[in-house]
Amino acid sequence: MQDKELYRQVLGLASPWVVGRVELNVEEQRVDVFVEHDSRVKWRCPQCDRELGCHDHTEERTWRHLDTCQFVTQLRARVSRVDCPEHGVVQVLVPWAEPRGRFTLLFERLAIDILKHCQTVKGACEILRISWDQAHAIYGARGRARSGSQRSHSGRTDRRGREGVSSRTGLRHGRLRH
Ligand SMILES: [Zn+2]
C-alpha cells in the first residue's frame, strides 16, 4: 500500500518534507506518521528569514493530527535548527503547526469548530479525545492568532505581530463565550 504517498497528500506536505514511514498500532488504535526532510535543503531563520544550512535537529516532536478512521493520528518529526549569526540556534518553522503547537493546524481548526458548537467544553473534549487543558490551549492560541497576525500563504507566522497581544481565551467555567 502506498501509505507514505497517501499521508503525504493527506497532510499536504510539500518539499522538503516527505513521509518517511507510517506505523499502525492496532492495539492502541493509533497511527504514527514519521515526517522527514531532504538533507541538502537550505532553511530559513524564523526571525530574520536568512537562508542557512541545517545546524542540528530537535528531539523528536509529536503533533496530534486529525484521526484516520477512528485511529488517533500523530505526526512525528525531528525539526531542523539553524545557527543564525544574529539569532543563535533556533528551530525552523514547520508548515503543519504553530511554532510551539502540540496539534497540527488542521486539528486545531476542527477543535475550534467543535468547541464553538458544543454546549460545554467537556462535551467537545470527549468528541476530540483531548483534555480540558489542551482545549484551553488551542482556543487560547487561536484567539491570540485572530487578534494578532495572519498566517501567510507560505505557512509562516509573523511572530513579531503576535507579541504584546493579550491571551484572552474564550473558555470560562467550562462554557464557551461567544
Ligand atoms: Zn536570524
What attributes characterize this protein structure?
single chain, 178 residues, alpha+beta, 2 domains, 5-stranded mixed β-sheet, two-stranded antiparallel sheet, 5 helices, 9 strands, disordered C terminus, binds zinc ion
Low-confidence stretches: 149-178
State the separation between the terminal residues, measured CA to CA: 45 Å
Quaternary assembly: single chain
**What is the beta-strand fraction?**
25-35%
Q: How are helices and strands ordered from N to C?
A: HEEEEEEEHHHHEE
Give the overall silhouette.
globular
Structural class: alpha+beta
Give the fraction of residues assigned to helices.
25-40%
Major β-sheet annotation: 5 strands, mixed
Extended strand count:
9
Secondary structure topology:
Blueprint: H1 3-11, E1 17-25, E2 30-37, E3 43-44, E4 51-52, E5 56-68, E6 71-84, E7 88-91, H2 105-117, H3 121-128, H4 132-147, H5 159-162, E8 171-172, E9 175-176
Parallel strand pairs: 2-6
Antiparallel strand pairs: 1-2, 3-4, 5-6, 6-7, 8-9
The structure holds zinc ion.
